[in-house]
Every structure is written in C-alpha cells, then in structure tokens.
Amino acid sequence: MRPKPSPRPGCPRESQACRGELGRPGYRSDSVIDLHCHVLPGLDDGPATMPEALAMASAAVASGTTTLVATPHIDWRWRVCPAEIATHAATFVGMLGREGIELDLRTGGEIAISRLPDLTSEELDTLRLGSGPYLLIECPLSLTSGHFDLLLQGRTAVQHHRRIHARRLRAAGAPLHDRPFTRGAGA
After folding, report:
1. pLDDT, position 107
2. Which position among 34, 40, 99, 183 has the lowest Cβ density within 10 Å, counted as fewest Cβ atoms?
3. Which segments of 29-133 does DSSP mark as H helices, in order?
4. How far is residue 133 from each of residues 34, 126, 128, 179, measured CA to CA in Å?
5. For residue 106, what pLDDT band results from cuts at 50, 70 and 90?
6. What residue spans define the domains of the chain?
7. Which segments of 100-160 does DSSP mark as H helices, in order?
8. What residues have CB less than 8 Å from 74, skipping those under 6 apart?
C-alpha cells in the first residue's frame, strides 16, 4: 500500500485549498503547467481564430492550468517564423487580460528536426520553452533522420512523442537502440 502524499509546505493537511478534485491531501489541481500547447491563433494546426484560442485558454484555466507555454510548429509545413511568435503572444496576452482569463503565457516552439539546420542561434534562443534551457524537438517518424546533437548548438532538447513513435517503429519491426535521442550539455 502506497503512503499518502504529504501536503505542500505551509498548507494544512485538511485544508480545502490543498485538495484537488480527487480530494487527496497534498494534491493541488490549481497549479498545472502545460509545456506544450498550440494555442496562438492562426499560426499552425491550433485554433484558427482568436475566439477559439480564448476558449481554449479558458478551458485550460478551468481545468487548473496556471502557466501555459505556446509552442507553435516550427517546420516546413506551417512555415512559422520564430520572430513572429513574440508578437502573436503579446496580442494574445492582451486579449487574455481583456477577457479576464488569468493565465501566465510563455512561449517556445515545437521544432521539427528537418528545420533545425536552418535556424540561427538567436532563433533557437527564442524557441526555448518559457525562456528556459530546453528546446522541444518533434520526433521524426523514422530513426534514420540522423543525429542532431550538433544542430542544437549546445542546447538541451526535450524530444516530443518519442515513446509514441518508438512504439510505432517497434510495431513496424524497426530496430531501436537504448541510447537516448537527446543529450543535455555535458552528458
């Protein structure tokens, strides 16, 4: 039998503020951080319009999300320019404020490996998740896409959907290696 989770520091065990929907002490449903969301309108396969984007943000807040990282596709299909993301995010943040939607919006990008060679160091810096040290890399459908550590120019990558695609490749009979696709600096 698993031990009960301890409450957060400064939060009494039986306090309603420390209980989430499941009623477990120490569980807080009001502190979710979404690190990957296509929420900026009109950029990619996310919402097409501002009202759709605001509805999406409102639903995220209602389900407990306090911080959301907008990560539009950076690939050759959608052709999002990294420099445009900040402008779209600023417009969206303004609309969130006008609508009274309390959401801490950060930016990043979901970078296709095929786009990595064409991004400058400055562009990669603007695509880091929430201005932190990590890049979100969209996993290729094939393991033959090559080794991309050098393309990251010393940055750390978080690979998106690796487990899902690994299952697909395993089902297709492709050989998988135990070595991870991504490495942090100094690894």
Report:
1. 98
2. 183
3. 50-62, 82-99, 121-126
4. 16, 11, 6, 22
5. very high
6. 31-171
7. 121-126
8. 80, 82, 109, 110, 111, 112, 115, 119, 127
Q: What is the pLDDT of residues 1-21, one digit of tens each?
A: 444 444 444 444 444 444 444
Grade residue 25 by pLDDT with cuts at 50, 70 and 90. low
- Counting every residue written for the chain, the total comes to 187
For residue 51, the number of C-alpha atoms closer than 13 Å in the C-beta half-sphere is 0
70, 107 in Cβ contact below 8 A?
Answer: yes
Helices (H), 77-158: 82-99, 121-126
Question: Strands 65-70, 104-107: parallel, antiparallel or unpaired by DSSP?
Answer: parallel
- Classify residue 65 by its DSSP letter: E
**pTM higher than 0.70:** no
CA-angle at 160, arms to 147 and 116, nearest 5°:
45
Q: Does residue 147 register a pLDDT over 90?
A: no
CATH code 3.20.20.140 for 31-171: yes
Q: Which of 5, 29, 98 is nearest to 90 (CA)?
A: 98
